[in-house]
Design brief:
There is one protein chain. By secondary structure, this protein is of the alpha+beta class. The protein folds into four domains: 3-77, Arc Repressor Mutant, subunit A, CATH 1.10.10; 84-124, no CATH class; 150-228, no CATH class; 238-323, Alpha-Beta Plaits (2-Layer Sandwich), CATH 3.30.70. The chain contains eleven helices and twelve strands. The strands form three sheets. Strands 3, 4, 5, 6, 7 and 8 form a six-stranded antiparallel β-sheet that branches. The protein has a four-stranded antiparallel β-sheet with strand order 10-11-9-12, with helices on one face. It starts with a helix and ends with a helix. The mean pLDDT is 82.
């Protein structure tokens, strides 16, 4: 049997994958024309039966090819790796991810589009404006290295940068090299963060991945996770990423603030009824400027109840801000 005949079922499947979906099925005549165009001659009635038999064989092997019986049987690929609705969601997610550069986003979307039929590809040409998209294509490589460090339980070193008033990158603490035992990566506010034991902090700390420079795996064993370590405790405390002191805080909230509380801390946050118009929230978090700004944003509808030290710090923070007006 000629080699091309052995490969014929694969060519048929490729044609159906590349050209059909539920709304755009193919006939035996369409498939025959394609095979003839690539040098596999099919012309007789027996040849057309061969195509039908090939499709039956592909179906028997588990390939999801749907046959609609009619005067001319119609064929199309039933399920793909990802359905169109899933591809749309992923395209939107890629476009919305600010840590992905414009060029990388276009490349990823192009590859996602290749998983749809040509007839569906046009529906994936979606435009989503994203403010503040990253300019550094290195983030994905750093994420990959961090995952490797987590999986192999080794430390990694890196420098960490901020921006000067001239918008220039500047390594913190004169280029200090940080050594981290990474435990988890998490996603918050359109950013990747890594959580782990920092030798410099002598404690668990959080770093923004897009500010990590010159990362290297060390082959040194990572510090073991503390017994009390729970990623959920840190994930629900978004403010930890700014490295304020971590403590238990009680908030008094107007009833219509429950959406804001659940959005920030999740449904498992500890709440209780205070009176007919208010509820309280008890949460462990890192306090500091970011937390204070979040509370201030609600103009008195969310208030700090305790501890007094945090209340005093909150007042001092905004007195200082008011002096600049």
């Amino acid at each position: 049997m000629p080699a091309e005949n052995k490969q014929r079922p694969l060519h048929i499947y490729k044609y159906l994958m590349d050209n059909t979906d539920e709304e755009h099925p193919a006939t035996i005549k369409d498939i025959t024309a394609y095979l003839n165009s690539i040098g596999i001659e099919i012309g007789t009635e027996a040849g057309r039966k061969t195509i039908s038999d090939d499709i039956d064989e592909l179906q028997a092997c588990g390939f999801d090819i749907i046959k609609t019986r009619s005067t001319h049987n119609l064929y199309f690929v039933g399920s793909r790796v990802l359905e169109l609705s899933e591809l749309k969601m992923l395209v939107d997610a890629v476009q919305a991810a600010r840590f992905i550069t414009s060029g990388k986003a276009r490349d990823l979307i192009k590859r996602l589009t290749s998983l749809a039929s040509p007839h569906q590809a046009g529906e994936l040409k979606r435009k989503l404006y994203v403010e503040g998209r990253a300019e550094d294509a290195n983030v994905l490589a750093v994420v990959d290295m961090l995952y490797k460090a987590i999986q192999t339980k080794q430390t990694m070193t890196f420098k960490y940068h901020d921006y000067t008033s001239e918008k220039k990158r500047e390594h913190k603490h004169n280029g200090q090299i940080y050594e981290l035992s990474p435990y988890d990566l998490f996603w918050s506010n359109d950013r990747y963060y890594v959580l782990g034991y920092s030798k410099a902090h002598e404690d668990i700390a959080t770093f923004r991945v897009d500010r990590i420079d010159k990362p290297q795996l060390t082959n040194k064993p990572a510090a073991p996770k503390p017994k009390e370590y729970r990623i959920e405790n840190f994930r629900d405390s978004v403010f930890l990423m700014y490295d304020g002191p971590r403590q238990t805080v009680e908030l008094l909230c107007d009833n219509d603030m429950m959406n804001a509380i659940v959005d920030k801390f999740g449904r498992k946050v500890d709440t209780s009824v205070a009176d007919a118009e208010h509820f309280t929230v008890t949460v462990e978090m890192s306090t500091g400027p970011t937390f204070f700004a979040w509370v201030f944003n609600y103009a008195g509808k969310i208030r700090i109840q305790s501890p007094q030290t945090v209340i005093d710090e909150y007042r001092a923070h905004f007195k200082k801000a008011a002096k600049s007006l």
